[in-house]
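Fig. S4 source data, part A: sequence.
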Amino acid sequence: MKKTAHFSPELFQFLEELRENNNREWFQANKDRYESAVRQPCLRFIADVAAHLHTISLYFVADPSPTGGSLFRIYRDVRFSKDKSPYKTQVGMSFWHIEGGKMVHVPGFYLHLEPGGCFAAAGVWHPDAATLKKIRAAIVQRPDAWRAVRRSGLKIEGGKLARPPKGYDADHPLIEDLKWKDYVTSISFSEAKVCRPGFITDFTAACRRMSPLVEFLTEALGLSW
């Protein structure tokens, strides 16, 4: 059976035009395009990727609900922003750990689609103090497991402290890893790859490649893997 692509170049064309016309009048006039080229393809991808993610771990949720699911809203929260543009010019899809609900502080996988900037990501982004404390404690208590994550070649990304976190010796052999404020990694894709019929397999492979980090973080927080 021939595979069909979930995404098309029209998704990126729409986002490019939205970038140039980020206002309610333009969006309302082009809402049908948003539905057909962006929102519906994303919801289909989310529904289809669930079984693929379960080949990595059964505990990660891909929720294709039209609202409140894995697909991020297109509408920006402008209440505390100087930029009052009403719409996001990228698409985000989040696949979170089932035991953590939709909390942002649990490990998960993520897909980001944006003209010139598509990537899969995994890990914990901007964890709260309690979550960060557990992750750092796990690194210290299970140094061999953490070193195995680092040997896998994954690049840790995000914010980092300039000084050792409180309670940790500057001479600790893993002090540079303990300084991280985020524990995430990512793998980039071209727009052409995103639009290929086999992209769902490529995304799953990227998640599998990043899974050593997610597994370590999941266990550090006492969640099932």
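Fig. S4 source data, part B ends here. Residues 193 and 202 are 8 Å apart (CA to CA).
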